[in-house]
Amino acid sequence: MENTKTNSTADIRLMKGNEALAESSLRAGMQAYFGYPITPQSEVLEYLTEHAPEYKTIVLQAESEVASINMIYGAAGAGARVMTSSSSPGISLMQEGISYIAAAELPCLIVNVNRGGPGLGTIQPSQSDYFQSTKGGGHGDYHLIVLAPASVQEMSDFVFEGFRLAEKYRNPVLILTDGALGQMMEKVELRPAGSLPYVKQDWATTGKPKSRGRNYISTLHMDPAQMEMVNITLQKKYAIIKENEVKFDEYKVEDAEFVLAAYGLTARICHKAVDLAREKGIKVGMIRPITLYPFPVDQFYKVGCQVKAILDVEMSAGQMIEDVQLSVKGKCEVFFTGRMGGMIPSPEDVLQKLEEIVELYSVTKA
Questions:
Q1: Where are the alpha helices (DSSP H) in the chain?
Q2: What interhelical angle do 347-365 and 264-279 show, nearest 10?
Q3: Residues 6+ apart with CB under 8 A from 136
């Protein structure tokens, strides 16, 4: 199952986010992909169907999202480097299987190209799957490692990082992106194939040699004491992940009196809003969580101790704001602004809300 195609150097292309992600999955040594088409991520399956033969990678369109996640479960249990992708309603259908995979401690990569909801909603971009992604959309006490790209380049890079983390911790990893990042075209530097070596997994269910005992994968434990031990093991792993894998980015935070909090596409919007505010003399910065789980709690607390207020900006009704509020522990006020259902806030929208907050503090001080 080794990936046989290798390139000596990376190359630069103009690509859609979905296509860059798909190409990177092949170059990252993905051995099998199981998925089902749904906009706005259908290009992932389409691209893989066309190009997978060059890499001798298995690509299969399952009969449903439920089938595809269970195929991922089986292939991951056999030690394969595997990925699936979908968009919001499809990811909802996968939740039971994702819980099984997390409980079985199997590595895999899942991609959610978030669209507006609830319900079938719209094919326009949204960030309303934050709760589902970071709090565990399925049953039980489990977590995914969640990466939030903000560019086509990160759509590409996070595939490699996602597979690395999944295999390091034997845990499913989710790339939470959105329809705009999936559809937009940007310059991307693609990593060479073969740059993420595949290591044969000694726990995989690939047959039993005489030299070892049986490999057995299951999530059914009728003894509650045994089920508790499984949960304790998972929680210890999550604690290690929190200690070692937090990633974030900051912009002009050093002297800031106010800070914008945003991830993914809205972080790009807030980056521009910071520049517009600075032109008006408002000392504002931005903090962007790159890992939504584990969340950069310590960094938000540090920022909360420094500034007057944080403005959380999302393409949702306000889901990440709960993590921001918990992280700052009351050290500063946290405000929210956002759009829903596939609507995207503009930098001017964010600036207007920021100016209202600044004025509030000016009046209060006076």
A1: 17-27, 42-55, 65-77, 88-93, 95-103, 130-134, 152-169, 179-183, 224-244, 264-279, 297-306, 321-328, 347-365
A2: 60
A3: 99, 142, 143, 144
Q: What is the pLDDT of residues 156-181, one digit of tens each?
A: 999 999 999 999 999 999 999 999 99
Is residue 230 assigned to a domain?
yes
* Cβ burial, residue 281 (10 Å; 0-12/13-18/19+): exposed
Give the Cβ contact number of residue 205 at 10 Å.
15
Mapped onto helix, strand or coil, the DSSP state of residue 33 is strand
71 lies in some domain: yes
- Report residue 31 as tokens: 């051995």
Contact 193, 5 (CB under 8 A): yes
CATH number assigned to the domain comprising residue 101: 3.40.50.970
pTM score of the predicted model: 0.95
Counting the structural domains of the chain, the total is: 2
pLDDT for 1: 43
Helix 224-244 and helix 152-169, axial crossing angle in degrees, nearest 10: 130
Joined tokens for residue 208: 């039993």
Question: Which structural domain range is residue 268 located in?
Answer: 249-365
Tokens read off for 277: 């505010």
Q: Which residues are CB-neighbours of 291 under 8 A, at least 6 positions away? A: 145, 146, 147, 148, 245, 246, 247, 248
Q: How far is the first Cα of the chain from the last one, in angstroms, to the nearest whole number?
A: 69
Q: Do 108 and 77 meet the contact criterion of CB atoms below 8 Å apart?
A: no
Q: What percent of the chain has pLDDT over 70?
A: 96
Cβ–Cβ under 8 Å, residues 152 and 19? no
pLDDT above 90: percentage of residues in the chain: 93
| Nearest Cα to Cα of residue 301 among 283, 319, 323, 320 | 323
